[in-house]
Write a structure and sequence with these properties.
Chain lengths: ~425, ~425
Amino acid sequence: MKIYDIAILGLGTVGGGTYRVIEKEQEQIIKKEGFGINVKKVLALDYSVDIPEEKKAHSIDEIIEDPDIKVVCELIGGKTIAKDFIIKCLKAGKTVVSANKELIAHSWGEIQNAAKESGAGFYFEASVGGGIPILRAVQESLQANTINSIYAIINGTTNYILSDMEDHNRDFDEVLKEAQALGYAEADPTSDIEAFDSTYKLSILSSMAFGVHIPIEKIYREGITRITGQDMQIAHELGMTIKLLAIAKKNGNEVEARVHPTMIPLSHPIASVKGVFNSIYLNGSAVGELMFYGKGAGAFPTASSVVSDIIYAINMDRQHKYADYLDSDNTDVRFSTNWVSGYYLRFSVADRPGVLAKIAGLMGKHNVGIASVIQKGTAGDDVPLIFVTYDTAEEDLNAALTEICLLDEVNEVSASIRVEQ
Amino acid sequence: MKIYDIAILGLGTVGGGTYRVIEKEQEQIIKKEGFGINVKKVLALDYSVDIPEEKKAHSIDEIIEDPDIKVVCELIGGKTIAKDFIIKCLKAGKTVVSANKELIAHSWGEIQNAAKESGAGFYFEASVGGGIPILRAVQESLQANTINSIYAIINGTTNYILSDMEDHNRDFDEVLKEAQALGYAEADPTSDIEAFDSTYKLSILSSMAFGVHIPIEKIYREGITRITGQDMQIAHELGMTIKLLAIAKKNGNEVEARVHPTMIPLSHPIASVKGVFNSIYLNGSAVGELMFYGKGAGAFPTASSVVSDIIYAINMDRQHKYADYLDSDNTDVRFSTNWVSGYYLRFSVADRPGVLAKIAGLMGKHNVGIASVIQKGTAGDDVPLIFVTYDTAEEDLNAALTEICLLDEVNEVSASIRVEQ
């Protein structure tokens, strides 16, 4: 029986998990695939997992120069040394498996070119949705579909925070602090709560789903820091909840891609995705609605995808496929920004006669249809007044808001959250 | 650019859908895969879809003898002529794609042997879960996992009926008649409502997930005909719902496989799967909880899987993989029947003093722990008395029920539904 040698770069959460999963599942991999996997070399700064001495590499060259090693797993992460290592390995003809969403979102084309030149493969299932096999599904199961839309919860930290705010009626800051104490959020949570992480993942996922490169610069990004417990509570009163959704839609050559807090009906399949779970909901021309749900992070779920890529790469041998759309300049693709969606708007107003009529009038003037109105609290100079609109073009809404803010009775727009049905 | 010729056998819902999807999605298949698909021949009794004359085959031999045709899609269904056609095609070295769950569940080993002999491929993604790419995920994405358990809603008709009973507080017979009128249930609904269909699908799915052949004869089967509106209502009072679940578990060499109505908490991810949707929820050693959700039937969702298999088969060329566990006699696998689960038990009793104590006493005697008791209605000779038990071994429960039924006060066990948490 054939044993394939591989190398692992980085031995943190995912690297350690990958090493352990390969050890633990060796027997059933051999049973199902007819071959085994041997981690011949590991390159790491810190060997926290118990690794035999002879497996410890002392330089990337030791791995590159080892002709037995056909697949290298880059599990260092970030944009530092990882890219240099990946390019070196690919140029040496070694297939690379990576979970590095930030790097891939930024440098996918460059990395793939290095792979193409040498005929090596480049796989990155673990970069989106952790253990959820969404990229393989898009490539190997949905070939007969034109994918029209994606609605995805692809950041566990923010979903944990929003779920906790929802279930325990708490405010953002309070839950974030607790999440940090529990290790569900980083000491510097910016990448998660400001939605950078989701944006990287949406860039990769939507590019593969649409067969068109969706660069991160073309993705609108808005984090969850301004979501209040009050808005979450009102959402529930309206039969809805608030999720940080990564949304991408393609209609002919027109593409829109955006990550922002979104109100969705509680009856939507992804509304019930709680805590650190991820979920990708998409619509394909033949398959219709399809949803994937699972653990979006963690050592073993992510390792599940990494090891799957290793096995897949071995099975593909030298017949690797490449994302040719990365090379095209996409001149036929139009990235739209005048999106259509409903809006939840919470104004702070002085409760004087006629204020509701004035606001409603300005909305009507700009073609913004009103689905419902909620007036909260008693008279005063700072009373919340909530509108939910029907689907409306972003430009119309902004025009209406500009005029509304000029009204004497309106203190501010306290919240503006897009609504998807 | 290469165009691959294929043939379609059968032009009913799925055959017609497949023909149309190939026509409609040709352009994006070429863009993504670098090759096209041409339906060169169609063999059907009735050409309801508009097919050019020259594509109509007049016999299976015309297809078998055509050297251009590499892949044949068997979409006739059932156990009739389909098997004969499949075997003939495979023996002629043509790869076969099929959606025929009944046939595959019955004759998988025999069909696969014919494929192995000629080196042809045999693919059947569409046989389980319609458009949900669950079989490909098990084979190409979860290789690093020992799959421990599967909980699946894989019959749309019964899920439609149960959802309607749940949402509109109606009884089984009433909803079935309406489902038949609407075309959601067959004129002879036996295969669906008596859970034969789910059993075929669980046999295929669990065999692939566990890497061990789970023949249909080893799967316990119980349909939904005895579920009443009353039980659905009480389930809701208990924070639960009732689904027809296909359940398979593997623990070492011990396997259990069963299809039966099951009470599950409303908070479980599959509890919210409504109407004709399907969902497969599984637990893998590395990935943990994973769920797939989508349309389990219908022309285009099923065609999505069929066309995916065609493309996959073309890409695999002659390197087809086979389920070698079908050849083994599985002597090391033990199929258990003394399953452990909770139970919802509804007794009809005469409301006399001490009846509850007597029943509870007999349960205690046989190690059946009681989680909750509900007594409904007023005094009389036919009063419902409901128990929900903790997890208990099936044999213990049956021993308790046997003694309980001998009590003078107990008229009958009106309902007995397994509970999974």
